[in-house]
User: Which sequence fits this backbone?
C-alpha cells in the first residue's frame, strides 16, 4: 500500500493545476497498488485538490484509506442564521468517503462527515518528561482531551481546569482564572488548536500569578494537536517554554522551543485488513 502525502503530490506523480477560470484540476497516475491519502488541508485550494484526488483514486478502485488529520471548519460548527454552517459545507464536499481524522475540534463533525476513526493524542508515542506534576485544560471543552492525555502519559499528575469569559459579540476573552496550584514542577497545557496564541497567553499570565503563591520552581509547556501559529511562535508568551504539536497542519520545523511530531506512525498502523464500516473504494 502506498502512502501519498499532499505536501508531496509531485513525488507520487500527481499533477495539480488551476485553470485560468479558477478551477482546480488534478491528474493521478494509474496505480498498481492501493493508496492511503494523507491530506493536509490549509486553504480552499488544498480542499479542492483533495476532493479531486480522492475522486480520481476512487474511480480507479485504489483508494484504501483517507486521513485528514485537521478537518477544515470544525470551529465553524454552528450558525445564528446569518453565518454559513461551514462544517456542513466542507463535509458535503467529501460525500460518503470514509475519513480518518485526528483530534477533531467538534463532536458535530460526526453529523456532517463519514468518520472512519478519530485518533487522539493518546494514540501517539510522546516523549514523557519526568518532572510533570500537572496537566492544564484551558476550558471545559478541553477537559476530556486533557484527562485522556493525563491518564495516558502522566497518570500521577493533577488536572487543573481553567475558566474564562468570552464576549458573545466580539469573541474576546477575559477574566482567565486558574485554580491554586499545590505542587511545584512542570505543567502542560493541552488543547487541540493553537491559532494566534492569545488564549494561551492569557493562561500563561494566570499561571504566573499562581506560581508566585507556592514555593519551588515551576515551568509551563504547551501541547496542541494542530499548530497553526498564525502570528508566529514569537507571539506566544515566553513563559511557555516548550511547545509540541504534530504535522497535521504545522509548516514549521523543530527548533529549541518547538517540536513537531510526525503523524506517520498512525499511517503505519493501517493495514490491508478490511475495516468494518469502511468499504473499499
Assistant:
Amino acid at each position: 500500500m502506498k502512502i501519498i502525502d499532499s505536501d508531496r503530490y509531485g513525488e507520487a506523480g500527481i499533477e495539480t493545476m488551476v485553470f485560468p477560470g479558477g478551477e482546480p484540476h488534478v491528474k493521478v497516475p494509474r496505480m498498481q497498488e492501493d493508496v492511503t491519502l494523507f491530506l493536509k488541508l490549509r486553504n480552499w485550494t488544498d480542499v479542492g485538490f483533495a476532493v479531486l484526488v480522492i475522486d480520481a483514486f476512487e474511480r480507479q478502485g485504489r483508494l484504501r484509506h483517507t486521513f485528514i488529520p485537521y478537518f477544515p471548519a470544525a470551529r465553524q460548527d454552528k450558525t445564528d442564521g446569518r453565518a454559513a454552517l461551514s462544517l456542513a459545507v466542507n463535509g458535503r464536499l467529501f460525500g460518503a468517503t470514509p475519513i480518518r481524522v485526528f483530534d477533531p475540534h467538534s463532536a458535530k463533525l460526526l453529523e456532517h462527515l463519514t468518520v472512519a476513526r478519530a485518533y487522539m493524542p493518546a494514540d501517539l508515542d510522546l516523549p514523557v518528561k519526568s518532572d510533570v506534576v500537572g496537566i492544564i485544560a484551558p476550558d471545559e471543552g478541553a477537559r476530556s482531551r486533557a484527562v485522556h492525555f493525563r491518564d495516558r502519559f502522566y497518570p500521577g499528575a493533577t488536572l487543573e481546569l481553567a475558566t474564562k469569559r468570552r464576549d458573545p459579540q466580539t469573541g474576546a476573552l477575559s477574566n482567565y482564572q486558574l485554580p491554586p496550584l499545590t505542587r511545584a514542577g512542570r505543567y502542560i497545557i493541552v488543547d487541540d488548536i493553537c491559532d494566534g496564541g492569545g488564549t494561551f497567553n492569557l493562561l500563561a499570565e494566570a499561571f504566573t500569578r499562581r506560581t508566585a503563591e507556592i514555593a519551588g520552581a515551576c515551568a509551563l509547556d504547551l501541547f496542541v494537536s494542530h499548530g497553526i501559529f498564525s502570528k508566529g511562535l514569537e507571539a506566544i508568551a515566553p513563559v511557555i517554554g516548550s511547545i509540541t504539536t504534530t504535522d497535521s497542519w504545522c509548516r514549521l520545523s523543530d527548533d529549541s522551543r518547538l517540536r513537531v511530531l510526525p503523524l506517520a506512525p498512525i499511517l503505519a498502523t493501517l493495514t490491508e485488513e478490511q475495516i468494518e464500516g469502511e468499504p473499499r473504494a
In short: Residues 44-60 form the longest helix (17 residues). The two ends are 14 Å apart (CA to CA). Residues 272-277 have pLDDT under 50 and may be disordered.
